[in-house]
Give the backbone structure.
Amino acid sequence: MEAFIEEYLSPDKVLITVAVLATAALFLVSVLAGVTIRRRARDAMDRCRYRPRKHLMVGAEKYCFQLLNDLFGQRFYVIPGVALSSLLSHKVGLQDRRAAYGFIKNKTVDFVLCNQRTLRPVCAVKLEDEKAKPDKTPGASPEDMEKFFKSARIPFVYIENPAKLTRTRVIDEFSRVIYETSTMKPLPRGRRKKTAEDTPATYKTRQKKSKDPDDSPRKASSSKSRATSASSELASKPHKSTTTPSKPTTPAYEDYEDDLSDEELEKYFE
């Protein structure tokens, strides 16, 4: 009996037992604390009451919204308070997508003009807020937002002193920004072709096959037979002109041709 007591009351086993009991107690306390916090938050939520606001927008924001609706409401939807992440996609090419999303996260513009048929964004509008303190985080300033929208080829209009905005000034600002955007080069379409730097193993294998001496006679004979058959087919068929009419050069604003062409813009803002 004494040996049994001495074995189980040794200092090492006592410390291990105390550590296990303390860990279990800490786990139980954390679980109980979490349950208690959630219960208190639920009780506080049940006690809260709300009432509707009298106005969705006030002051200069309301005035600009009404002015934009009067000017463009027949053709576009004017949507207030849109997040940049809803307008711009950060999944572009091989860039760092997490960093690109971080720059537009929790950033908003005051108004967005959308095509009524497709809901495609046509233009973004940001109003100057004189009362708010300047936000120095990357992506929050109007200059940074302008860079983001220029990279996406979406016109971005920043309106200073919106309380004194006039119809003429709105038309001038929109015309200038849309014209500047239309002169930019269009965005590349489709996926970028992979190069030797992107897939070195595949590229080297393809290069090795092209330099294989055993395959070169076979490729030469097959290409010669294809050329002979093609020439015989051309000789048997009547000659037709293969010239195709050259396509007119599309403007850089072609991504928005469903919304407004350059001619329509000029007529629309006259």
Remarks:
- The chain has a mean pLDDT of 76.
- Residues 54 and 62 are 13 Å apart (CA to CA).
- Strands lie at 76-83, 108-115, 121-127, 156-159.
